[in-house]
Amino acid sequence: MIKTEKLVYNSANGDVQFEGTISYDDSIESLRPGILVCHAYGGHSEFDIKKSEQLTELGYFAFAMDLYGQGRRGSNPQESMALMNEFNSNRTLLQDRMIHAFETLKKFDKVDESKTAAIGFCFGGKCALDLARAGEDIQGVISFHGLYDAPNTSIETNLNQTKKIDSSILILHGYDDPMATPQNMIDLADELNFKKANWQIHAYGNVGHAFTNPQADDKSSGLFYDAYADQHSWQEMSNFLKKIFTFFDFLNLKFIFGLKYFLTKKYRKVSWIKPATDTP
């Protein structure tokens, strides 16, 4: 049975309290891959809970995080923009809170901390990408109609920034998104290429921003729902997660067999050593 529970948790130094949710299938006793769900600019919402429950139906443990803090939610676009801009102008704070949420995900007793991923929508796509940019040990990052600008490390000198991104990256993009133009998409691809990431971009023609949100209905601003892009992108995410976690199992299996071969070979070599004698 799928369960969703409210989770109130503190920041690393205890000065901020957050309110997110966890979703899981209580009939599964084995450890599950953990997925961090990163909210859009309005903050943690019912949309994130629904996506978490859909992830649970795929067999994952989902943690819909709260970046802003308990009770801080945007009730209209202006409030949401103001909340988001606090973190757009302070990517160090954004990174610190993302890393803390990721560490929180890995501590759940139902999560296999060696198998993790993050998905994000709109501003949440940027948040998920910043985990990979920070060099966190996360297997996959998926951005749905996300924002792609990289942090300015010449200004924010305390940021953790990796020279090589080891996470696999999936970008699900509306080609007509006014908040992430084709040039922004190319700039992101160049960044990921430069950092030797394993990345892919799926761009949907004649699709704008917020294409996964059935409530989005403002074509004049380029924000509108698209049923095909919504369904197709979710399937692409599902396939992507399955592949990265299966590949991780393959690497573990290969390591185990390699170690077994090494130990067996070493043991055989030892068994061939002649015992020492007193005769010259």
Keywords:
disordered C terminus; alpha/beta; 39% helix; 280 residues; globular; two-stranded antiparallel sheet
Instruction: From the alpha carbons, calculate the radius of gyration and give it in angstroms.
Output: 22 Å
Mean of residue pLDDT values: 91
Kindly report how far apart the N and C termini lie: 75 Å
Main β-sheet description = 8 strands, mixed
Counted by DSSP, the helix tally is 6
The percentage helix is: 25-40%
- Which residues form runs of ≥5 with pLDDT under 50? 253-257, 259-263, 265-280
In spatial order, strands of the major sheet run: 1-2-4-3-5-6-7-8
How many β-strand stretches? 10
Strand content: 15-25%
- Briefly note the structural class of the backbone: alpha/beta
Q: Which overall shape is indicated by the principal axes computed on the Cα atoms?
A: globular
Question: SSE string, helix = H, strand = E?
Answer: EEEHEHHEHEEHEEEH
Plain-language structure description:
The protein is of the alpha/beta class. It contains 6 helices and 10 strands. Helix 3 crosses helix 4 (123-133).
